[in-house]
Amino acid sequence: MKLTEKDAEFLTRLRELLDEKGLSIEFRTDGIKRFVLKKNYGLTIERRFGMTRQGVRWRFQRLFGEIYPSTYETLLFIESNFGTGLRSQAMEIARQRAEARQEALKQRGLLSSKRTTNDGQHENRNQP
């Protein structure tokens, strides 16, 4: 699975909230091992993410419960069959793609700290 632009935007906002201590990610080992998003799921969270609390939970589960672990499952399978000799080159490819994606987003103006609301006004994403 690939990350979408909405996924990238979600991760950026999540990082900001983790840095501000508004949310935290816990690793649970009771039964099935998994990541859990913890702390306040109030209106501030809904406003910051621009989605409902259920939407925040769904995207978090998709990213941290499906995509992130699946990526490592794929790596484990490939490296168990071919060794780790190609890892550094694969990382170079991944870095180049990530840099190209960031540059494309900058050129399209998607990395700004403001967005337009439904009424045409600009809203600062960094404010709760």
Structure description:
This protein has 128 residues and is α+β, with helices and mostly antiparallel strands. The protein folds into two domains: 1-83, no CATH class; 84-123. The protein has four helices and four strands, in the order H-E-E-H-H-H-E-E. The strands form two sheets. A two-stranded antiparallel ribbon has the order 1-2. Strands 3-4 form a two-stranded antiparallel ribbon. Strand 3 (114-116) and strand 4 form a beta hairpin. The longest helix has 30 residues, at 53-82. 6% of the residues are buried.
For the largest sheet, list the strands in their spatial order: 1-2
Radius of gyration: 17 Å
Tell me the β content. 5-15%
Distance between the termini: 31 Å
| Helix proportion range | 55-70%
For the residues shown, what is the average pLDDT? Answer: 84
Give the H and E element order. Answer: HEEHHHEE
Quick one: biggest sheet? 2 strands, antiparallel
Unreliable segments of 5+ consecutive residues:
113-122, 124-128
Number of domains: 2
Shape: flat
What is the strand tally?
4
The SS-based structural class is alpha+beta
Number of helices: 4
Notable features of this structure?
single chain; 128 residues; alpha+beta; 2 domains; two-stranded antiparallel sheet; 4 helices; 14% strand; flat; disordered C terminus
